[in-house]
Amino acid sequence: MNPNTPLSPRPLHHLSDVRHRVLSTRQLREHGVTGSVTAERCRPGGPWQQLLPGVFLLRTGPATSEERLHAALMYTVPRDRVPRQPGPAADRDTPPAPYGQAMITGPAALALHRFTSVPSLLSLEHIDVLVPRTRRLRATGFVRLVRAHTVPRPKLVTGLPVAPAARAVADTVARLTDPQAVRRLLAEAVRGGHCEPSALVRELSRARLLSRPHVVDAVDALLAEGRSFAEGRLYDMVREHALPAPLWNVDLRLPGGPCLGSVDAYWPDHGVAVEIDVRAPRQDGEVPWSEPSRKREYLDRLGIVLIRLTPRKLRDDAALEQQAAVVRTALVASADHGPTSYVVVLPR
User: Fold this and answer.
1) How far is it, in rounded angstroms, from Cα 139 to Cα 125?
2) Which residue segment(s) compose the domain that 120 sits in?
């Protein structure tokens, strides 16, 4: 029997793109190709090759990075399930269904997100695939499995389900021991606009990486950089939108009493304060939400309006204009809520 003879009632010669060049055993059977014919075609010198258990490349030569990515996802598909091919009009933000809950994560995902601080797809030795913890799979070949109790909602990048940037960063950091590499990666994630610092720290905390000194140092530097940038944008907001000049970076205290907290800007004649909110979760993943809530309630009882702004709200000009309007409204409305209790204002 000639192994190149089409045997299928659904011939394979029409299958041209990468999703059709990489097929599973089940898909080949759907095309009428038996296991024995597949084995014959994958022998040395044959026209096909086996990339992973149950996953085949229908041509010779090294697999491309796209073929390896597709094969890695195909490996995770249950054997009794045939992957459906996404349509050409698939929404890039709609989680794809062909591979179930599996998605690319780690350095491969970051390369797909166009990070420059990770190796190129072609040079990656392994491809990390995020799967539910309940899946009974083993790492094999170039596939490395990352298990999760709860998988995130993936992004569709070049037709493949890819973990969100913050999750992919955390899965990458989990395997890094070089402090400089961790710093570069976290900095690019935030500076490049791939994710917010709070989302990134939340994922690092969820992965229990904040117990590693080199990760904590990188996070501290990242949050300090984020605060510095946000402070600069707050100064720009006050100047560009002609708001009254506040007292910058002060502590508020009751006369002879305890400290009420620090604020980044305070208008004593109006009883309005602004605080830049750059908070990181604790190592157990809990965010101390009760502390800022108590602070807001306490200041509110004293007649002081506290406005919290995040770095994200201060980042682009359109959002900056909106936040300036919020502050201006609070300053104008201050005449309606009566006098503010006397507080002592000290430099931070």
Assistant:
1) 13
2) 103-209
pLDDT digits (tens, 9 = 90+) for 123-176: 999 999 999 998 889 999 999 999 999 899 999 998 899 999 999 999 999 999
**Cα–Cα distance measured from residue 151 to residue 275, given in angstroms and rounded to the nearest whole number:** 34
State whether 50 and 133 are in the same domain: no
Residue type (1 letter), 5: T
pTM score of the predicted model: 0.72
The model's pLDDT over 174-195, given as tens digits with 9 standing for 90+, comes to 999 999 999 999 999 988 889 8
Number of domain units in the chain:
3
| H/E segment holding residue 251 | strand 247-253
CATH number of the domain bearing residue 262: 3.40.960
How far CA 158 is from CA of 146, 189, 208, in Å, comes to 21, 20, 31
Q: Enter the tokens of residue 222.
A: 């990242």
CA distances from 196 to 26, 330, 344 (A): 42, 27, 34
